Amino acid sequence: MSAYEKLSAKTLQLNPPAQGMPKKMLFSEVATVRQSLCSAAIKDIPAAVRAAIHAFPIRARTRPGESVAVAVGSRGISHIDRIVKECIDFFKKKGFHPFIVPAMGSHGGATADGQGAVLESLGVTEAAMGVELVCDMEVEHIGTLSNGMGLFLSKKALEADHIVLINRVKPHTKFKADIESGLCKMLTVGLGKAVGAAEFHRRAVKHSFCIIEEAAGIILKNCRLLFGLALLEDGRGETAVIETVAPELLISREKVLLKQAGAMMGKIPFERVDILVLDFIGKEISGIGMDSNVTGRHRDLVGDFYGPPHVKRIFVRDLSPNSGGNGNGIGLADFTTKRLVDSLDLKKTYVNAITAISPEKAAIPMYFETDREALEACVRTIGLASAEDVRMVRIRDTRNLELLQVSRAFEPDLQSDPRLEVLTPWRPIRFDDGGNLFDWNFWDGY
After folding, report:
1. Domain boundaries, the chain
2. What is the pLDDT of residues 93-147, one digit of tens each?
3. 45-264 CATH fold
């Protein structure tokens, strides 16, 4: 008997159930629902990359034979390997000498080998790309903000004749501003490696991340940026926009693209949720494991916020295998499992959280041997008299929001929202013999 089961038994002795009531908690029936999301996926990714680059006046800004440092980040961007490969191939065919540099701050444990491993997990390898990956962590000081903060940039990127940024533009999980996650952040934080990222996060506690705009302006004057390749994704996480952005337009254009990206994002389609179950968190899903724009919850020294879907309890079941053991963001959950805790690489997780000045995001919540125990803990701590009244939503992760499993308390919402289609009958939650939820692919083929 686990410690939790012993505690539950003791609780039942102190507060015995009413006559005829079962000791094992009964959960509400659930159904699988499909929500209509923004769908604008580009069908031919390589062709779209070529078209975007050909639309840019490269000849007027370069000479054949020059070197190009192509900056690639650590996020799980849709088709990132194909996009990078097409960009690399373009430069090679035009007689340039491209190479790849990681632009991911302290990710990958803040080591060169770790950052190379992150790129490898994304399919960005020397063998696949046909060029060198330069994964060192050396930086140079290239400027100072008005508040006295030093700005740093990858030494290898600075040594190249040109720099190209490839990144997705999207709302950030940590802050709200005119410029959030995208090309400017990659330039100012990602290419700053561990040193620059640490300095940036430290100063942002006092000055906020609005300093990205000023920092980008200074760095643009002190490096040879050729262009940024901006990527936007639709509500299904598919590439919807590929656009080259000139350095002189980087700041103004990214503000427009951020609003466009926010309008396409997938969301949980309810205003109030008692329990949110996530099958996975991970670095390739979000910088903090689970996107706070989806969960509505964020804890940080820069500022906490809570918004729709106003979740009372978050239960995370597992760490994504592609996260490489980095469980940054687990601190945003209320409950988790022992198997997730056992899969954590604490060094990677702690380095990431400390660099981001967010130790709270690496704090391990209460954890249990089984999903059933964790769900019961959720129900016991939301202030409802009956588990059958719980408004529960289960998703695979915060990137995959087309399919949801919802409890019966949402039935009125489903009937009134034409964006939501019920795919299965209402039926009891299914646990396996070990007390864990069946995996996503057990849901009637969905």
Report:
1. 11-27+267-400+428-442, 45-264
2. 999 999 999 999 877 778 999 999 989 988 999 999 999 999 999 999 999 999 9
3. Rossmann fold (3.40.50)
